[in-house]
Amino acid sequence: xxxxxxxxxxxxxxxxxxxxxxxxxxxxxxxxxxLCGDRxxxxxxxxxxxxxxxxxxxxxxxxxxxxxxxxxxxxxGKPLVEVTKLxxxxxxxxxxxxxxxxxLKCATLSLDTVQHAIADDPPGGGAPNAxxxxxxxTDA
Amino acid sequence: xxxxxEPGVADGAVLPAVRAGALDAYAxxxxxxxxxxxxxxxxxxxxxxxxxxxxxxxxxxxxDAFYREYNANVHRGIYEFGERSTNAYERARVxxxxxxxxxxxxxxxFTRNATEAxxxxxxxxxxxxxxxxxxxxxxxxxxxxxxxxWQILVQERDGDLEFIPITDDGLLRLDVYEVLLRVKPKLVxxxxxxxxxxxxxxxxxxxDMAHAAGALVLIDGAQAVPHVPVDVQSxxxxxxxxxxxxMLAPMGSGALWARRELLEAMPxxxxxxxxxxxxxxxxxxxNDIPWKFEAGTPAVADAVGLGAAAQYLRGxxxxxxxxxxxxxxxxxxxxxxREVPGIELYGPLDVDQRGGVVPFNLPGIHPHDVxxxxxxxxxxxxxxxxxxxxxxxxxELAATARASFNVYSTRDDIDxxxxxxxxxxxxxxx
Lengths: 140, 430
Hints:
The complex is a heterodimer of chains A (about 140) and B (about 425).
Chain A: H1 7-14, E1 27-33, E2 38-47, E3 50-59, H2 62-75, H3 80-84, H4 88-95, H5 104-120, E4 130-133
Parallel strand pairs in A: 1-4
Antiparallel strand pairs in A: 1-2, 2-3
Chain B: E1 18-19, E2 22-23, H1 25-29, E3 38-39, E4 42-43, E5 45-46, H2 57-69, H3 80-99, E6 108-111, H4 114-129, E7 135-139, H5 148-157, E8 160-164, H6 174-180, E9 187-191, H7 203-212, E10 216-220, H8 232-235, E11 239-243, E12 254-258, H9 260-265, E13 276-279, E14 284-286, H10 300-316, H11 318-339, E15 344-345, E16 357-361, H12 367-376, E17 379-380, E18 382-384, H13 389-394, E19 400-404, H14 411-429
Parallel strand pairs in B: 5-17, 7-8, 7-9, 9-10, 10-11
Antiparallel strand pairs in B: 1-2, 3-4, 6-12, 11-12, 13-14, 15-16, 16-19, 18-19
Helix pairs in contact in B: 2-10, 3-10, 4-5, 10-11, 11-14, 12-14
């Protein structure tokens, strides 16, 4: 029954790590998954090519919130070049649960948003508050 | 054209599923093969009928018989199968027209679904009749199918859209509608029954108001035809669009009904075979209605299935169907707040103004998580924005979960939902 909603997933959902805004972010991006109404804002504080600070805000399902919590733990202190190399499979490994195709976008919203933040806001430039649907999908 | 009889429900026959003037939903359930399946070791509790309905044996068998016994193109073959196929297709048209009490079956055009029916009107009628500054009045509760085609049209033709707002419990503000009609819109288009809130709109009153202001009216009947008696003549509508797949018929079946003089004045929608009378290299003469709007080989088996579904529902009696679903709705609205602590319900409280649609949220739990846990118990509900993003925005909701009923839904299904929602709360509140 609980192969998806394991205790540690629910724990990250109830008390997500790195939840909140950070001071003087160098990159900010708001990602959304229109299918479920999930919306998160990722903020990175990059110094000398290293992600020193990271914070996220927003709301979403247990999978998207737990994924953001786990991912922000993972990238904190990592060189930016390594963060850009993260792939969907890495996020799924962090979650450690079987994700059905229907929920894949929930699981990957945080990574998508981090990567948009990096792409849109290279250190020292870029728009600070870009908003874009990170995963456009209709719900007909 | 002489129409030979294909298998179906005899006129006036009362099905065993109707007893003492009420539906026996348990007997009906047995007529839907898919509902005897198990999901994750549980009996299927299908509560997503507003998205699409399940299909009774009568419909499945009508489609099956078409392909096994007389598959051939329509209006072409001078041979046994071709004649049977044409007869079955045109008989289905008569059956579906009768189901909505259309005065003339030639006013009934087969489409793939309600979306295509609305697009047909937007392209064909709209491009001829909507010009710069012309207004179309819609509502805040429209499904994207009755919103996006009009957005595309007015952007192209430089027209305007106006919207009838809703009250917090999901009723249309007719006082504002009255004011909007002063701009003399060319068209008013609105849903008969809301797919998200279940609101049954006062169609007749709204049609009369529109006509008095000189506007034509298109009704999106996708959520109405499966659930309430629909009589296009007494509603007074000009266009009535609906899908087959929500009314027990195959996916890919649907229809547009419109008054003859409107259809005759409209240019064709799609060009091709079937919709022509004579084709020359540089011009063509178009066929009569309805075929003028049915270019190419139609989905004949699906149309035959739609005819069978209309017959099936007529056999049950749409008054009985409506009574059954109102009873279920009243039960759900009574039991859910009592048995599921904290549940938030949306939509009109008066069951007389509402179809069998129950949108809800459990505070602090995302509807996708609710739906995912319910699935483990074989319970299917919809989670998301149900193709009404502007309505969710208006209600300040990111998403909702939605349970919706049909003829085969039972109180047991609602009890199972209650038990499932308690499990959701146990898991998330730990």
